[in-house]
Amino acid sequence: MKGMFRNKWLLIGTVALALSAAAYEASAASSNPSRPLDASCQTTFAFTPTGSIHLEGTCHYTHLGLTTVVAEQIAIPQPDGTLYLVNTAVYTAANGDELFGTFVGTAVFTPTVAVSFSGTEAYAGGTGRFADATGTAAPVGGAEFTSAIAGVGHFSGGGTISY
Hints:
The protein is of the alpha+beta class. It is 18% helix and 58% strand. The chain has one helix and nine strands, in the order αβββββββββ. Strands 1, 2, 3, 4, 5, 6, 7, 8 and 9 form a nine-stranded antiparallel sheet that branches.
């Protein structure tokens, strides 16, 4: 009889622990809900002496407002004539909070002196309200050379962000 009561209390304790864990997860999810993210940016770029590409620009980002972006990019030529792109970016919101992003994508040269690109940008952390941010977006854009080592670009896209 004693073992039956012990098993009953063990079962009740296990169920209570599982319900508590589920309630905690639901609470944590509601404190950092996934939100739609839309972005649009105008940039300038220039090749650095090390061969990387320095980008700066102004953006309009949902949840950030008028935003500045500073990024460092690497473009790696591929055998098929495309470019493999990787960059790290810091988006600074109007209030100074920063959102950290990493872009990975592909660029294709166009018949004019330009490239078009697309890829995925992952967001992971930042400062202020974005300290624990996570999310992804799918930017699409283009860039035109205004000289042999510099130019202007643009991109836009949507995704989701939690913070």
